Amino acid sequence: MQNLASSPLLDAEALISGFGLLGIMATVFAESGLIVCFFLPGDSLLFTAGLLVANDQFLHQPLWLVMLAIAAAAVLGDQFGYAFGRKVGGALFRRPNSRFFKQENAERAQQFMLKHGPKALVMARFIPVFRTFIPITAGIGRMSYRTFFLFNVIGAVLWSVTLTLVGYYLGQVAFVRDNIEAIVIGIVLISGIPIIVEGIKMRRRARNAQTADHAPSTASAATLETEQPRI
């Protein structure tokens, strides 16, 4: 099987070949709960895991066990993120930008959560970056723990089962096996589309809100000008 992309951040196959199922679980946990690990290859990692199980390479555990372990790591990662959010509170939104933190990501996650409510925990599972920030945002917003836990489990199970199964069944197709590098890179690019679309929508809404806020003041000024008594 060909090597994946040369960057270690995208080399899911190298990670799995070196650390096995424990490496997958550690990566999923980190991407789900550690704010500085939003860049890790969650989607491509799950796809590659399913593919390798199908081809009995590096991962020799049964498929159900691999999916269960991934789901458990995802749930625990989100639990950590939620606890972190409750602890840091609004301080996260006052934190300056750094190499591993962008204020814009936190603000987008907050808007996404406000728009979709608890469902955001399920939807964000399939959106890179949001997958990391949404549990933290839920903690900051003091979402009911029972509600958070329920939607956290639903999202983690759907994500782990769906992507791993896709990799497993496609891994049995000769074309996919022969073009694994292009397939995985394609998944990384496609998985970034939702956050780009959501970012464009949020910027458009913010621009419209600014226009709406400015319009009344302009109209008021015009009204005052016309109502001034003539001398």
List keywords for this structure.
231 residues; mainly alpha; 10 helices; 0% strand; disordered N terminus; disordered C terminus
Structure description:
This protein has one domain (12-215). The chain has ten helices and no strands. The chain has helices at residues 12-33, 42-54, 63-88, 103-116, 119-123, 130-140, 145-170, 174-178, 180-191, 193-227. It is globular and about 60 Å long.
* Separation of the first and last Cα atoms: 88 Å
Protein structure class: mainly alpha
Mean pLDDT: 79
Shape category: globular
- Number of structurally distinct domains: 1
Major sheet: size, sense and barrel closure?
Answer: none
Q: How large is the share of residues in beta strands? A: under 5%
Fraction of helical residues: over 70%
Question: How many helical elements?
Answer: 10
> How many beta-strand elements?
0
Low-confidence stretches: 1-10, 217-231
Order of helices and strands: HHHHHHHHHH
Radius of gyration: 22 Å
